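Entry 14. Structure prediction run on the chain below.
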Amino acid sequence: MTWLINLFTQPSVGQQVVAIALTAAVGLMVGKIKVKGISLGGAGALFVGILLGHLGLRVEANVLHFIQEFGLILFVYTIGMQVGPGFIDSIRRHGLVLNILSVGIVLLGVIATLCLYFFTSMHDNVPVLIGMLCGAVTNTPSLGAANSAFAAAGVDTSLTGIGYAVAYPFGVIGIILVMLLVQLMFRQDPAKAASDYADEIAATTKEIESCSLTVDNQNLYGIMLKEIPDLISSGVVVTRLLRGEEIFTPNEKTVIEKGDKVHIVGMPEAVAAMEKIIGKRLDTPITTIPAKSTEPIQVRTVLVTNKKILGRTIGSLALAERFGVTVSRVTRSGFKFTGRLDLRIKFADKLKIVGPASGLDAVTQKLGNSLTALDHPEILPAFLGIFLGVIVGSIPFAIPGMPTPLKLGLAGGPLIVAILLSRKRKIGPLNFFMANSANLMLREFGLTLFLSCVGLNAGIKFFEVLLNGDGLYYMGLAAIITFFPLAIMAVVGHLVFKVNYLSLCGVLAGATTDPPALAFANSQADSEAVNIGYASVYPLTMLLRILSGQVLAILLLSAV
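Output returned:
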C-alpha cells in the first residue's frame, strides 16, 4: 500500500492530478445534495477543496494557478458562446427595464463594498473584501478577474478565496430570501404572475403568420412574382400558388396570371400590407384545398449543417428555381425569421421548407440535415477563440484616474471574444458554432476546475481565519453586500417599473448569475418569465461583474 500513500503525498504529476480529480469528483457529488430543493451545484467543489486543503492535500503552486486560470477561461468562453447569439436581441426584445434593474444591483453592490472599505476595518484587508464582493453575488468570473489583478500586484490570492468562500453561503440564501420577502410584502401569487405574464406575451408578441390571397389586383397580371411592390423588401415569402386546379411552389420569376391564388408567410404588418396590394384573404387557405399537382406539396424542417453553404443568402441558393422548394421560416437561437431571400444562412439554422417530395429530398441533402454534425464540435475554432480572447484580455486600457491600466483579463477577454464570434458564427472556413452539449460539458468542466483550485488554495488558511480570526465578522459584512442591493432594486422593480414578480425573480437570479436561485425561482411556477428575465440580464451583468471586481481591486490596492 506504500505506492498508494505515495501517490497522495509525494509530489509528482500523478499526485497533483489525483488531488484535483478527487476534489472535483467529491465536490460534484456534494453539490448534487439538495436541502429544501436547493443545492450547491458546482460550488460544492469549492467547499470540498477548502476541506481537503485544510487537511493537507496540496498541489504545486504554479500548477494550481495554471489549472485555475485555464478552468476560468473555459468557463467564461463557453458562457460567451452560449449567450452571444441572443445578447443584443435579448436586451432589445425583453430587457431595457430589466437591465436597468440589474445594473442598479451591480452598482449598489459596488457602493456597499466601498462603504465597508471606508467605514469598517476592511480597508486593511482589501483582498478579502474583494473576495467577499465576488462571493456575495456568487460570481466566479469576477473572482478570477480580481485574482488576476492581485497576482499582478504580488498579493496573496488565497485571501480572496477565503473572502469568496465565507460570503458564498449567504450569497445563495440571501437571493432566495429577497424573493420570498417580495412575495410576502407585496402579496404576490406566483401562479397568478405566471398567468399575467402569459397574457402579456400573448398581447404583445408578433408571431409569423400565413394566409392565402386571391390575386384581385389587375396591375399584377403578367408581371413576375419578384416585381410585386414591396414583396421582397417586406420579407414576405410566397410558398404556394394555386392556378386552376394545380398547386405548385413558385419562384421569383413566376409570372402571375388572372385567377391565381397565393399562400404567403410573413410578419403580421407585412402580411396585412400584401393583402392590400394583392387581393382579399381567402376564408379557406389553399394549403387545405385538394388540388391536382404532379407531386403533392409537402412541408419539412431541415437542419443546416453543410459548411459549404454557410454565409450564403437564401436567394443565392436558388432553391425555388432549381428544386421547386421555398423556405418559409428560419429558426436561429430561439428566434424566428421569414425565409427572405437576403437572409444569410448560419450553421444549425432550422429551415422550414415547402415543395414537392423530390425537391425536398434534394434540398435536404444540400443543406446537410445531419444531427451527428452537432455532436462533433469544431476544436480548431474553440482554441483560436480562446487564443484571441487571451490576447484581447491582455490589452491594457489607460483610463484617466486609474493608477494602472485596466485589462479585461482572462475572464473578460475570452467572454467578449466569444460573444462576438458566436454572433458572427462563421469567419472564412471557420465555424464558431458550439453545440449545447459540448458547451455545457466544457463550461461545467472549466467551472469545476476553477472552483476546486480556489478551494484547495483557500483551504490552507480558511479555518484559521473562520475559527480564530474574523471569519464570522466577514460573513456578516458580506451579507450586507448581498441583501441590500437586491432588496432595494426589487422594491424599485415592483413599485416603480411594475415588473412581473416572476420576471423580477429572474432578474435577481441573473444579476447575481446564480443557478441555485434560478432553480428556486423556477420552482415557484411553470412560466418562461423567470428564464427570460435571467437570460436578458445575464450577459451584461457578467461583463459588469468582471470589470467591477478588477477595477475595485486595482483602485483599493493603490489606496492602501
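The two ends are 51 Å apart (CA to CA).
Filed with the rest of this week's runs.
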